[in-house]
Write a structure and sequence with these properties.
alpha+beta, Pdz3 Domain, single chain, 43% helix, elongated, four-stranded antiparallel β-sheet, 441 residues, six-stranded antiparallel β-sheet, 3 domains
């Protein structure tokens, strides 16, 4: 049922994004004095239409978006056509569609951040690893240390560390740590107070102290145990077991409780900054993992304020170029996950909903809407960016038109490229589905 709901949600979101894109073009065209003969919801055959002024508003049978029909779009001799307008006006009309998609992305992302979310909180946060030559390493912070407070303010979640480190422009911070020493029953805890000065990280765009955080660390693996056979190592962090997030001894036991001897469960681990998986075959004995966890870890529901949700939605959009830059190595490693069409976006939506809940439709809708805007801004005809590029060239030439032959060749070449790209993306999406590939592997 959740798959069907996710698909319906995806189709509705995609339909709204594509229709709004064309609505943006229509509104901008009308304001520029362009005659709009028809604005259609869906694609022909036509079901019915209502005419208002010069424009027919139609509803069509095939629900795959919308369209705007204007007279002689590429013929400047036709009165009221888009081509008859100046280059800067044409650029504005072409840009209106993608800009509406960016606005929709902002609305969807802000709505997503307004929803109540589950947040893991505890009595401090644990240090998984320390970066070389970082303020944390210089101050003597070690893997397994628990950061309890910064400048006297209690740490309850990972975001607290980032927020407090970035306060006051990266001034020196006083940290209270708890460090466990020894093992087993002889374990003792020592409280430490250190002072360090955060450094500005230009890649992250904020101050950082150089730590990767977690909720718990594997401190030992018993010889000959199922955990050793699965390849679980000391220093790993257990993130999940058979799709269930874990963050304490209790949640680990709960995740294993329904399993029976001889059954194999998938364990997701954080190791050396990378996420890896291990197949753990359960026996009648203990799995053989000894772990240290932050005390009093729990899940709480959180709802952010309206204005904070708007800020997060806008901040996400502003950081899209950075996110694209960071995804380049992943795309190089597996281009099939970078080239995603409608089928791939639908698969990703279903996987995200199954993994993290239906609210992720809003998050995916925002991301897809941004992707649709960026794709249409590519300066290749017949995309909006291609029309903007032609307008820009003619504007820089003082309004002198490119020859009809040049424009026609540009559109023919661009259309051929778009068709080839569409076929390649569709092939990748279908091949991924047939092979059982996943975006969340």
């Amino acid at each position: 049922m959740s798959v069907a709901i996710a698909l319906v949600g995806f189709i509705v979101a995609l339909f709204v994004m594509m229709s709004s894109h064309e609505l943006g073009h229509m509104v901008a065209a009308k304001r520029a004095g362009v005659v709009v003969e028809e604005f259609g919801i869906g694609f022909p055959p036509r079901l019915f239409a209502v005419k208002r002024g010069q424009t027919s508003y139609s509803v069509n049978l095939i629900p795959l978006g919308a369209f705007v029909r204007t007279p002689g779009e590429n013929d400047p001799t036709v009165p009221g056509s888009l081509a008859s307008k100046g280059p800067w006006t044409r650029m504005a009309v072409y840009a209106a569609g993608p800009l509406v998609n960016i606005l929709l992305a902002f609305v969807a992302l802000s709505a997503f951040f307004m929803l109540p979310t589950e947040v893991i909180r505890g009595d401090g946060v644990m240090v998984f690893s320390v970066s070389e030559d970082s303020p944390a390493e210089e101050a003597g912070i070690e893997s397994g240390d628990i950061i309890q407070s910064i400048d006297g303010q209690q740490i309850r979640e990972w975001q607290d560390v980032q927020d407090l480190v970035n306060q006051d422009g990266g001034k020196a911070k006083a940290l209270i740590l708890v460090r466990s020493e020894g093992s087993g029953e002889s374990t003792s805890e020592q409280q430490l107070q250190i002072t360090l000065e955060p450094k500005y990280d230009s890649d992250l765009g904020r101050y950082a102290i150089g730590v990767l955080l977690c909720w718990g660390i594997v401190t030992g693996v018993a010889d000959g145990s199922p955990a050793e056979a699965a390849g679980i190592e000391s220093g790993d962090t257990i993130l999940g077991i058979d799709g269930e997030a874990v963050y304490s001894d209790e949640t680990v036991l709960n995740a294993l409780d329904s399993a029976v001897a001889g059954q194999t469960v998938e364990v997701v681990l954080l190791r050396g900054g990378e996420v890896v998986s291990a197949s753990l075959q359960l026996g009648s004995e203990d799995v053989g993992v000894h772990s240290s966890w932050v005390t009093d870890t729990r899940i709480e529901k959180e709802r952010v304020a309206f204005w904070q949700a708007l800020y997060r939605g806008g901040d996400y959009i502003v950081h899209v170029p950075y996110l694209i830059k960071e995804s380049i190595p992943i795309i190089r490693e597996d281009p099939s996950k970078g080239l995603v069409g409608v089928v791939g976006a639908g698969q990703l939506t279903v996987e995200a909903v199954k993994s993290s809940g239906f609210s992720n439709v809003l998050l995916l809708a925002g991301i897809i809407s941004i992707g649709l805007a960026l794709f249409n801004f590519i300066p290749i005809p017949p995309l909006d960016g291609g029309g903007m590029l032609i307008g820009l060239i003619e504007g820089l030439r003082g309004g002198k038109r490119l020859s009809p032959k040049t424009v026609r060749l540009a559109y023919m070449a661009g259309t051929a490229l778009m068709i080839a790209l569409f076929v390649l993306i569709m092939y990748n999406d279908i091949a991924r589905l047939i092979s059982g590939g996943s975006f969340l592997e």
